[in-house]
User: What shape does this take?
Amino acid sequence: MKKIYVILLFLAFSASAQEREVKTSKFVNQTEIALLAGRSYTGPGNYWPSYLSSYYPTTYIPTYTRGNTGTLSVQTFNGWRVKPRTALGLTTGLDAYQGALIMPVAAGIRQILFEKGPTLSKFQASLDLGTGTLWLDGEEGVSKKGGLMVNPAVGFVFPTRSGSAFLLNFGYKYQYYRITTAYDKENFTEETRNIKRLQLRLGFQF
Amino acid sequence: MTAFQPFPLKRGLSDTICNPDITMLRKILPFLILAALQWSCSDECTQTRTYTVWIPFTVGYETVRNGIASAEPQDLKEPGKIYAYKQYLLIGEVKKGIHVIDNSDPRSPRPVSFIKIPGVLDFVVKNEMLYADSYMDLVSLDLSDPLHIKETGRKTGMFNRGIWNGRSWYYDSRTQTITDYTKEVRTESYKTNCGNDEPRFIGMGGSYDQLSLNSGSSGSQGSPGGDVAGQGGSMARFTLYDHFLYTVTDTDLMVFDISNPSTPDSTGKINLGSGIETIFPYRDLLFIGSNTGMYIYDNQNPEKPERMSIFSHARACDPVVAENDRAYVTLRSGPCGAAQNQLQIINITNLQAPFLVKAYPMQQPHGLSVSGKTLTLCEGTYGLKSFDITNENSIKELQHITDHHAFDVIQLSGDILLVIGDDGFYQYSNANPSQLQLLSKIAKK
Assistant: This one.
């Protein structure tokens, strides 16, 4: 953590020390890698109806212990600068959770809130709103359907001389999805999952 | 590049968003912090599962032995086996009784009566005499007046167990009680671990499977000598030949002499191993479907059928029918085994050495019937299929009806198909096998 802090400080100073003409483009790409951190339950696996369940019916109350969880995700935002400080576009990527691999597809906005100069570090807010798709996460006999994805974040843009920039964002990610397993019309399960994660994103912009 | 803009005097929403002022930010900051604190980072996952359980109950033997009676027609609630006899159609109500329906006009079947038989699963009819299982007993009933049925004979303690939907009842001769089960579908919700360490037992299925029971497909039952017998099918456990009634339990082939129709007499029992499911008569042969293979028995001495050969296959649920030197076997994965779902065509020209001609993948095959060049196959929840089997190396699907469940079928003369499924009874005309025409249906209520 200390090292990251030092690097970020260095980047911030190196950017602010170079107040020169910076090339800007209408097109904005922000590509980031993220750590998704949250609290999840671990313990015995979910109970699925099986042949045995009908022979030895019992009321099953699973017990779980709550623990920290961390997974990775990558995302890319591609958009247009509609105002000098505002970019609108589409965000997609890959989010790995313990239970599913999700590809989000979202509309995104990137808004610079504060900047002292074009070559100096900026404070940015972003919001991605869309849906998560599970087409990459196929499994026989199981139907997985994605749902709402909301990802607000705030962070810093550290411009470089070439016009690109490094990014550091802190966000919150909510993802809903649903898993159904049908054995026949009398034996099936439907599980709804509300995944909530704090997000630390590192990346670059060009 | 635009530098930092001074705030205009009048501020619209977009300006506020794009150019927030610090004072305002300070105002909303406490709310933002509060909102952030409200946000949880704990996953919330809930699973709702619906599953089948079997609740045990006991039945005393007096209840079984005094339970036979005629009653007014009743609604179809849990359809079981179907059987065609003369103009009548008999539909089993699982373990409750038999619906007698006058099917003189297939477009408009008319309920006649309901025969209460505790524990009934399988039945056959010959010369106005109905033979049925009633839990552990074999009973014979005079069907000449369906409204006033008479019990004429009872062979007690013949069966120790019987299976339906993959669930067996048991008879304890010491206490003279039967332990049976009622099915209950439960739904419950609980919190899950959101996919952390989740084992998935895909394909285990529920215990819900019709396989081990009964019902019909074409295949005339042997009845030489001008006797009038009815017609059962590929999933039946009872069949008739000459003056013998054959029944299969999950381990034995039992032979009953019914030359005195009112009092069936047990004449023999042949142990077949385990996992026996269906019996189908063809010429002087008996085809017995088990969950590991197809047994062919020579029936020239009907009192003592002799085993000729076994055609083994992967472990699966397995009804069988035969026609024109070919046997047609459906294999279905389920509680009997996890083989692939398929239809197998087996050459039985040499009865000592049957061999596989070709196997075709299916979805959930149950009962089937063959008539000439047409094969009709029940696909369980996937419906009903009609095939042209002129070329056995390349059979053609002619039609697939998907709007109802089907687990057994009987082909009657006059191009009538009787089909039974979970949701009721259906009657089709298959004069044109590419375009089955629904004549009538009796829905489950």
Q: What stands out?
A: The longest helix of chain A spans residues 2-16. The CA atoms of residues 55 and 203 of chain A lie 54 Å apart. Chain A touches chain B through 66 residues (CB under 8 Å).
